[in-house]
Amino acid sequence: xxxxxxxxxxxxxxxxxxxxxxxxxxxxxxxxxxxxxxxxxxxxxxxxxxxxxxxxxxxxxxxxxxxxxxxxxxxxxxxxxxxxxxxxxxxxxxxxxxxxxxxxxxxxxxxxxxxxxxxxxxxxxxxxxxxxxxxxxxxxxxxxxxxxx
Amino acid sequence: xxxxxxxxxxxxxxxxxxxxxxxxxxxxxxxxxxxxxxxxxxxxxxxxxxxxxxxxxxxxxxxxxxxxxxxxxxxxxxxxxxxxxxxxxxxxxxxxxxxxxxxxxxxxxxxxxxxxxxxxxxxxxxxxxxxxxxxxxxxxxxxxxxxxxxxxxxxxxxxxxxxxxxxxxxxxxxxxxxxxxxxxxxxxxxxxxxxxxxxxxxxxxxxxxxxxxxxxxxxxxxxxxxxxxxxxxxxxxxxxxxxxxxxxxxxxxxxxxxxxxxxxxxxxxxxxxxxxxxxxxxxxxxxxxxxxxxx
Lengths: 149, 295
Fold this sequence. Notes:
The complex is a heterodimer. Chain A has helices at residues 90-106, 113-137, and strands at residues 3-8, 13-20, 22-27, 30-34, 41-54, 57-71, 74-79, 82-84. Chain A is α+β, with helices and mostly antiparallel strands. In chain A, helix 1 (90-106) runs antiparallel to helix 2 (113-137). The longest helix of chain A is centred in the last third of the chain and has 25 residues, at 113-137. Chain B is α/β, with parallel strands linked by helices. Chain B has a single domain (29-201, 212-250), classed as Pyruvate Kinase, Chain: A, domain 1 (3-Layer(aba) Sandwich). The radius of gyration of chain B is 29 Å and the shape is elongated. Chains A and B meet through strand 5 and strand 6 of A and helix 1, strand 6 and helix 6 of B. Strand 5 (41-54) of chain A pairs parallel with strand 6 (212-214) of chain B.
């Protein structure tokens, strides 16, 4: 029996998808793959790319931290933020990446203490995730053609 | 007797009331469309809230045994010496009794706790509530004005961060929140409830499935509980916004109806006054001619 996947954020339901046969998840302690019949699991999530495989195609989703619960072939994702491919603003993500990289490289007085460095690192991580997910649509290096199932 | 002056006065009044009706009608339509959007947002936030509650209830089943305080500071229940109250209202009025009802509910919560605690401070989100508590000379801990008609999660987060920080630092021992709960377009209910310490879910699910936890259940609780507080504040603000727009829509509809009734009444008075003045003019003329003929 395939998985039923629900991804929600505080703002909206991002995805509801039946018939998921494989789900790759950026869990806090490393990437994990969830197949139908997976043991019950609760885990926090890192910033990264989630990939859901269903008969209709492969759906990549950018996940920005949160929580996942797996029980009885039902997967609930409580994401701090989540975007599907068509919800990502490529230009904005690119601009965010440049900004974050510039801040990290400059290492000047604006980066007081570890807090701003951490913030810039997180921003970089988020923008890179968005770019990676978005590039799947345009058939980039990792290009697996995605389809909205 | 009704002269031409009165006729003109009534006519001017009709004009002014009719233009008021136009304004309130426009405001009603704006509020109606904003209400639909605000309501939509409140509904969209529900799946997250529900999932989080059920996850927490399940997690509580695994972490039960240890008392709350040792699990997480946000669960720590202590003697309420200092209390904070988060008061959510609208920034603008023209919403019927919405804001004053909320202020009354907030005041009664404050008055109820005041005799029993050493200090109670208000955190206001919304200008109407801030002005109310400021006038009454309450201690204000913080103010979050201008959240806008459609605030998102990030806009509301600072409120939750503040109360979490205050609570964890031990500067407040108990936190309440008050907002207008959206029941339907016609009914909003002032609601107050406790935010901190987090009250355990009523339906703690006993450990049924054999869950794998990454990291430990205690660490998961660490990340989930602050989110839970943020989510509750966000939910309250969304409810308050949906309530505000619907209350304004209803208030403006009533104002429009009242203005239109007034126009009807005034038009009647206007016609009467006009006819009376014509009649009295005719009487003058008839009386004048009669006097000449008889003379």
